[in-house]
Design brief:
Order of helices and strands: HHHEEHEHHEEEHHEHEHEEEH
Number of domains: 3
CATH architecture of the largest domain: 3-Layer(aba) Sandwich
Largest sheet: 9 strands, mixed
Radius of gyration: 23 Å
Helix content: 40-55%
Organism: Sulfitobacter donghicola DSW-25 = KCTC 12864 = JCM 14565
CATH topology of the largest domain: D-Maltodextrin-Binding Protein, domain 2
Number of strands: 11
Domain HTH lysR-type: 1-59
Shape: elongated
CATH class of the largest domain: Alpha Beta
CATH superfamily of the largest domain: Periplasmic binding protein-like II
Distance between the termini: 69 Å
Protein name: LysR family transcriptional regulator
Pfam families: HTH_1, LysR_substrate
Keywords: DNA-binding, Transcription, Transcription regulation
Length: 303
């Protein structure tokens, strides 16, 4: 096995699949990185990457080295945190991937609370509307809206959450009440961009038989702001409504959706007590925050 510095650079290129991406992550010039990879391939006497205009893809030899280097990286992480694993507070850096609805409306409160109790801990929230690749270490753990069935992952359901149709008071005052689903068909719909829905659990409008989406975004935060601007009717998370005064639920008896958040970790981190403690804090905080905000959303509708 080569020295750790070579492996560290190799892992970055393999994960980013490009010299430029790895160079940004490492703060290293891509040309220098390219020379280091060429030297590593010469030392290994094997091609580790297939280079193309699309980027760097691992060869079979590269995949084998990626596995071995990943194991070394994990061993070094475990060694580094061994002395502090049982300390009263958490420290270091933890990166959490999450869909943007969860990242915008739930995680700021949850992570702020964890941070106050663990002042030496750096928490990074990566909000992206897609599934995170934990194998390539895009994050230490991720929150998903469905339980993955493939990959070496540990998955736990954290909390269910509810969604309903909603529109702004201004929109409803201007266009009249929407008493049933048949009437709903004559109103412009706000929702996801159909070909950018990354998880079947998010295809709410298809389940309702809705056709054209007049205003669409891959971000639920943007969708909610469209509703606040009286753009039409859409499906919203109940936990987001306290952040959108003037938007209220409609047809709650006819349409009530339930989904769940899952906390996803790589199986290699199962014995990492530091990440396990953070995962427990995150799961408990997320569940409590969903319950708190959903209760607020119904309280605001009471006359």
């Amino acid at each position: 096995m080569k020295n750790w510095d070579d492996l560290r650079l190799f892992l970055a290129v393999a994960r980013e699949e490009s010299l430029s991406g790895a160079g940004k992550a490492l703060r290293l010039d891509p040309a220098t990185l390219g020379r280091r990879m060429a030297r590593l391939e010469k030392d290994m006497q094997a091609a580790l990457f297939v280079k193309s205009p699309q980027g760097y893809a691992l060869t079979q030899a590269g995949e084998k080295l990626f596995e071995r280097a990943g194991a070394v990286e994990q061993a070094m992480r475990s060694t580094a945190i061994e002395e502090t694993a049982h300390s009263e507070t958490l420290s270091g850096q933890i990166r959490l991937g999450a869909p943007d609805g969860c990242a915008n409306f739930l995680l700021p409160q949850v992570c702020a609370a964890i941070g106050r109790e663990n002042p030496a801990l750096d928490i990074q929230i990566v909000a992206l509307p897609r599934v995170f690749n934990l194998t390539r270490r895009e994050a230490d753990m991720a929150i998903g809206v469905s339980a993955p069935t493939a990959g070496r992952l540990v998955v736990r359901q954290v909390s269910e959450y509810r969604l309903h149709l909603a529109a702004s008071e201004e929109y409803l005052n201007a266009h009249g009440p929407i008493p049933d689903l048949e009437t709903l068909k004559s109103h412009p719909m706000v929702g996801y961009i159909p070909d950018m829905i990354f998880d079947r659990e998010l295809d709410y409008l298809a389940d309702l038989g809705a056709g054209r989406v007049a205003l669409a975004s891959n971000s639920v935060s943007v969708q909610l702001n469209m509703l606040r601007q009286s753009a039409g009717v859409g499906v919203v998370h109940d936990f987001s409504l306290p952040f959108a005064p003037g938007v209220r639920r409609i047809l709650t008896e006819e349409v009530s959706l339930t989904r769940a958040f899952y906390l996803i970790r790589h199986v290699d981190d199962a014995k990492n007590q530091r990440l396990a403690r953070f995962a427990d804090l995150m799961a408990a905080g997320l569940k409590a925050e969903v319950a708190r905000l959903e209760a607020l959303s119904t309280e605001h509708e009471r006359p």
